[in-house]
């Protein structure tokens, strides 16, 4: 698929700049009390990817975190996160990545996540999901008590989301094998897609954060309650229907009650 080829090439080229750039960060202008950062590498990476897309598809819409976060969707759209996990990146932690997706009438048709520190390229189209070109699948069903579950960083804007995330840690400790907080959505989705983790719980907000990874994970076999995600922004992504069924019974009530 031409669009996927463009994404992969652009991300690889951008990663070369990211890996050799100065990781010094500055604080972004955000609502009072919300701490977030950006590096020069974020801006440079985004420009390289946008320029690559524009050179092939000049009329497509592009939604990107740093320069056009409020752009509107069109019949052909692209979503870009030039560095997902910027805090990790700025501190020398290897859990960060570059991700992008291509959509037709709002429906994802291709996506890629590249983890430069590991040289791992996760890709997907409607034909399936791949890790460095080889087909990948989510893990086999196992009891929730044996599952590894990752969660997104604690929300800095929504009090209800903060309460719910805290409740997951404090009240679901005995129903999950282990909790993991990687600090980057790209790793959460990529690791679940290739079978390294079994469950991922997060609150979906910015489309560039979750859409590329969610599409890749789905193509790899992951499942979730679409209505729950769309209406309440709660994503409980699981490796199989069996794991989702148990997570819905044992984790979802805790999340919902904490948000009341």
Q: Per DSSP, what share of the residues sits in E-state strands of 2 or more residues?
A: 25-35%
Strand segment tally: 13
Listing every helix as H and every strand as E from the N terminus to the C terminus, the arrangement reads HEEHEEHEEEEEEHEHEHHEHH
Low-confidence runs (pLDDT<50, min 5 residues)? none
Number of helices: 9
Calculate the mean pLDDT score and round it: 92
- Described by the principal axes of the CA atoms, the overall outline is globular
State the share of residues found in helices, binned by percent.
25-40%
Write the layout of secondary structure elements.
Blueprint: H1 2-20, E1 25-27, E2 37-39, H2 40-56, E3 61-64, E4 76-84, H3 86-90, E5 97-104, E6 107-115, E7 120-125, E8 128-131, E9 134-135, E10 148-151, H4 159-171, E11 178-180, H5 185-193, E12 199-203, H6 207-219, H7 226-232, E13 234-238, H8 241-250, H9 252-259
Parallel strand pairs: 3-4, 10-11, 10-12
Antiparallel strand pairs: 1-2, 4-5, 5-6, 6-7, 7-8, 8-9, 12-13
Can you summarize this structure?
Helix content is 39%, strand content 25%. With 260 residues, the chain is of the alpha+beta class.
